[in-house]
TrEMBL record:
This is Small ribosomal subunit protein uS4. Keywords: Ribonucleoprotein, Ribosomal protein, RNA-binding, rRNA-binding. Signal peptide: none annotated. InterPro entries: Ribosomal_uS4 (IPR022801), Ribosomal_uS4_bac-type (IPR005709), Ribosomal_uS4_N (IPR001912), S4_RNA-bd (IPR002942), S4_RNA-bd_sf (IPR036986). The gene is rpsD. One of its GO terms (biological process) is ribosomal small subunit biogenesis. Residues 93-149 form the RNA-binding S4 domain. One of its GO terms (molecular function) is rRNA binding.
Amino acid sequence: MGRYTGPKARVNRRLGFQVFENAGAVRAFEKKEYPPGMAQRRRKTSIYGQALTEKQKIKYYYGLREKHLRKYFDKAKRMKGNTGEHLMILCERRFDNVVRRAGFATTRPQARQGIVHGHFLVNGRRVDRPSYQMSAGDVITVKNRDNLKKFYAEVGAGIDQSASWINYDKDELRAIVTSLPTADDISLPVEVGSVVAFLSR
């Protein structure tokens, strides 16, 4: 699921949340907030179904495959504290998510594409892995090419950066991870407790 190419609006409608942020999917979701399919009376979702939906939110939102989500979950289990919070913080610390939250890109797929193509540097070194875990003090800059600087300056001009743990300088096209995200900084509203229970089965 790392590269989902199907109809994004249907996923948003099925999950009841805008996990895909491109303009077309957002407009479709706002126009039809009910799930896709023939209009009919729907049965109450089971506990299993609710947990599966919450898990799918995480996978689509962060662009994860099942094995990547399981890997994060196994790592979160070994950490002291709340497993669910650690799981979400690991997702938030992904390089592609930080690029999106900083304001370099309008969507996470766009951020991933730029990373894979080598458009960004971390602490002056090229990093082309979207899953790279960012740390406090890391500095993200755009590769020193005029066409890239112009492109990301135009993209960033229309984005309101809202992550309190990232300091983004639009003029310099530079973002600094000032601290690690906390549970309050998680950008995806999800019932992570049910996801932990689902993955623990």
